[in-house]
Amino acid sequence: MQDYLSQEPNPRQLKILTRASWTVSILIFVVISAMGRYKFKVDVDFSFLPALHAILNSLVAICLVLAVLAIKKKNIAGHKRFIGAAVLFSTLFLVSYVTYHSTHGEVRHGGEGAVKTLYLIILASHILLAAVSLPFILITLSLGVSHHFERHRKMARWVFPLWLYVAITGPVCYLMLRPYY
Fold it and tell me: How many Cβ atoms sit within 10 Å of the Cβ of residue 22?
């Protein structure tokens, strides 16, 4: 572990990755913003995708917890594997999410009262934190990849809870909305 952590930071690589993180985050924000206005008509039934989204988000949450447990045991290889899996599941989720929402209309919660209010609070916090956290998740990953381990560790302490919250509240929103699909 010490050999790995003693690698020299690569500022040039970090600069490139940070720019890429912001570019990707802005592009994703633009695409997701446009999905509300434009829908594609396709002859494929994607109604199974919301359940897949919940499964993928659950897998992200599990991988994030396992990644933290691995690094607490100083298992860097395990930490990298679980973070890599979390990134893979998040990417699959994003592709699936864009596919579903660019071909289907919105499903609204049909409940009333406290349940609907709770759903809207969880959904609003989920959406807001997902949008805000994405560039910081990518930059935290960039710090690790470019061997800026101390900065990576400091940033991960506040980015990890945001990412985990988003990963957990995604399936919660799905389960609360499920009767209305």
Answer: 14
